[in-house]
Amino acid sequence: MSGADGCAATDSPDEDASSCSSSKDALGSSFSRCLSSSTQDEHLLDEWDTLNGLHHFCINGKGPITYSIDVSDVEAMKEKFAQLLLGEDVSGGIKGISTALALSHAITGLAASIFGEFWKLEPLSERIKSRWLREMDWLLSPINYMVELVPAKQNGANGRMLEIMTPKARSDVHTTLPALRKLDLMLIEVLDSMVGTEFWYTELGGRADGCNLYNGTKQGKKWRLPTPRVPESGVSPSQRRKLAFQGKFVHQILKAAKS
């Protein structure tokens, strides 16, 4: 049975882990093109607005993203799965919600805790990236066993043909979710490419000599946000084209995720 991230579900945890590893190793090579700002890629980008067009682009050839698991991580995983099993009702009562809704809440909470205060176009730290990938793997692992019953035929002991119900991986989950995870890795790759840029950020709205401050007015709590700044002469044409392409690329990822 295929898992939510393209992994095969097995009875052995070791086999399951090895299947997931090989699947993720192949992820980086599953696309036919890499993120760039060439004219041909821009043409493909114009036509790509659904998950079906995902194969046109690939993640930069950095190899698979890996992470390690410590003993403390195992304890945290146990706590998360206990909350999911109890439907967020830690008292063990009858007020728990469904497992699917508990999973949704957990994923939303994880995204908010990691990206809720992320205000800069810069690479994610290895610690944050590892935590995001690790905990998403935890939360999505139950989906490996999400199945539906479909009719099938089987030969009985007396030679008669019997119709039985057999479990089958849910096509809606096991087709869409791997594509969404690829989109997630593409967004991480876009952030990883934000190095050597011609813009930077200042905290608390400060201004240094010889540089323009972007965004003139700040109201309420906005003055606490990092402020993007550029050189006095502005960014170069090549940097401008690259940023425009990346912005369009991320917009297409959003459209594909909603499709």
From TrEMBL:
<feature type="domain" description="PRONE">
    <location>
        <begin position="64"/>
        <end position="259"/>
    </location>
</feature>
<dbReference type="GO" id="GO:0005886">
    <property type="term" value="C:plasma membrane"/>
</dbReference>
<feature type="region of interest" description="Disordered">
    <location>
        <begin position="1"/>
        <end position="22"/>
    </location>
</feature>
<protein>
    <submittedName>
        <fullName>(wild Malaysian banana) hypothetical protein</fullName>
    </submittedName>
</protein>
<dbReference type="Pfam" id="PF03759">
    <property type="entry name" value="PRONE"/>
</dbReference>
<dbReference type="InterPro" id="IPR005512">
    <property type="entry name" value="PRONE_dom"/>
</dbReference>
<keyword id="KW-0344">Guanine-nucleotide releasing factor</keyword>
<dbReference type="GO" id="GO:0005085">
    <property type="term" value="F:guanyl-nucleotide exchange factor activity"/>
</dbReference>
<dbReference type="InterPro" id="IPR038937">
    <property type="entry name" value="RopGEF"/>
</dbReference>
